[in-house]
């Protein structure tokens, strides 16, 4: 049996009800993310990027449409099931790091494993390995306030990946970093994607960061305006000269 895609969105909509007014943040978004992909979501401020990331990260549910994450239809899951899917399938990296300021790097990274019921010694071992993977093996006992922004974001990446998720989501991961630290964070994300095959979907305003991704998805006014994966000629049906240039229909045999 072939495995379901990491993410499958079909006509996903999300509206916010503000009493007198409805804000249609997403107005029918469809795309698929496969294992090992590396995609950048770009688009102007207010276009719906964060709304989309929250949906993909199972922090929220669509108003309508179908969203499958790791093969599970999120609309059919209870809050507890959704939390469990989030814990097991997804790692999330935020612009502002969102670390616990009074906890060490090691404890921050081990936290998702605590929620998962992993025993203490194993939590420590795996958190240490995750911190080494982001070149922070020498900062295990440091608290966030004792680290640079770049280091804090690397701790957040280790926390996102310690549970070996299928999908890593990052909303403006370099937004609070200077260019040198931003480049280091991007290098680490690219390396982790290449080594572990975790699918990476990130939102960015930075044209350089977006250009480095293998796939770009441009969002505008709550719709996907451009998806370079969909535009990839290798995936486009090829007109067949033997049929007068007619494109074979799906499932139709070539003569
Ligand atoms: N919790 C919310 N309540 C009401 N409106 C919201 C909420 N979150 C986002 N919006 C609105 O939805 C639209 C998309 O926002 P957002 O997804 O944050 O865009 P982006 O991340 O691309 O800047 C904006 O018009 C924004 O004001
Ligand atoms: Mg945003």
From TrEMBL:
Q: Where is the ABC transporter domain?
A: 7-246
The record's annotation in Pfam families points to: ABC_tran (PF00005)
Single GO term (MF): ATP binding
Query: Could you tell me what this protein is called?
Result: Putative ABC transport system ATP-binding protein
Originating species: Kineococcus xinjiangensis
Keywords, ordered alphabetically: ATP-binding, Nucleotide-binding, Transport
Checking Gene3D superfamilies in the record gives:
P-loop containing nucleotide triphosphate hydrolases (3.40.50.300)
The answer, when asked if ATP-binding is one of the entry's keywords, is yes
- Kindly give the InterPro entries that the UniProt entry links to this protein: AAA+_ATPase, ABC_transporter-like_ATP-bd, ABC_transporter-like_CS, ABC_transpr_LolD-like, MacB-like_ATP-bd, P-loop_NTPase
Compositionally biased intervals (Low complexity): 242-255
Q: Which residue ranges does the record annotate as region Disordered?
A: 228-255
